Amino acid sequence: MATPIASPPLTPSATLRWDVVSRELDILRPTSVLELGCGQGAVGARLAERTQYVGVEPDSRSQAVAASRIQPLGGTVLLGDHTAIESGADFDMVCAFEVLEHIEDDAEAAAAWRRFVKPGGHLLLSVPAWQHRFGPTDRQVGHYRRYDPDTLVDVLEGAGFRDVRVTLYGWPLGYALETARNAAARLQSRRSANAESMADRTAASGRFRQPKNNTVVGPMIDSNAADRVESWVDEAVKAGATVLLKGQRTGSVLTPTVLADVPHDAKVSCREVFGPVTIVAPYDNWDDALATINDSDFGLQAGVFTHDVNRIFRAFSTLDVGGVIVNDFPTLRVDNFPYGGVKDSGFGREGVRYAMDDMSEPRMLVLNLNK
Length: 371
Known about the structure:
By secondary structure, this protein is an alpha/beta fold. About 35% of the residues lie in helices and about 15% in strands.
């Protein structure tokens, strides 16, 4: 019996997008699909499992990876843009995920794509939302623009598409991911001047921060620990939490779960999960956010993402935790760091110096030199 081919891993943003796209596929049920700018084929492989699939990708390195993933599933991946498609070919659905914003003349591109859509077929695309949020990551990966919903509708209707429907998705997790990516892009831009052309940045965008096929998710310490994490997630969902990303379980291995709208008294919010679960919660006031973190019996470390030095020092002086990590994940540690927490997160510190102190036996000598 043939072994099923595992789907390639998706980036967090692509996971949010696939949740929307897969529902559209279930409704529209296309038989044939053309994907423009298929990148390394993580989404294309999922489309090829459902449809007669053709993808095009202008970057040769990404195209080679996509072909290796998609062709075993019966799909085809061509090197190039839409001009590589055979003249007269048409499809039930044409997909372009995060492509239109890379093209200087987006109206001309959308009009060119329309001829590949069968009568009664559909164009399914995604673009980054809201021009006012254009930032460092957009520049880093070669975006000319972002789109307000009305602007996107105008472009597509001008290209001859009708009954255009826009869906906004991904909030609040998408905003959190974007904030982290922008912070990384700013740091990289300070470290090295980016002299690449827009075309070079666009070509590389399909390879940008892509997860590898050998991405590892480690097991929990035992099945009881996995049971505990699952039960905490279920408890939060029953109390009203929204599941943004649902983890799957195989034995003691749990893939990541992301939750929103979590009640503060749910265990995943107020206790230490020690499992692949995170929650996303918006805030309006910085001090209120810090107070929410402090409203816990635990205080190991906290990660704070900001370039505002006043907020950094406010967080450092306010948060009742063992360490504040700025612009990185809260469990970051290096051997010479004084790693440890406060409250029910423990006492004392780990680290080379502290281990040496713990393994040493102090000896005291008192001298009274007046005798």
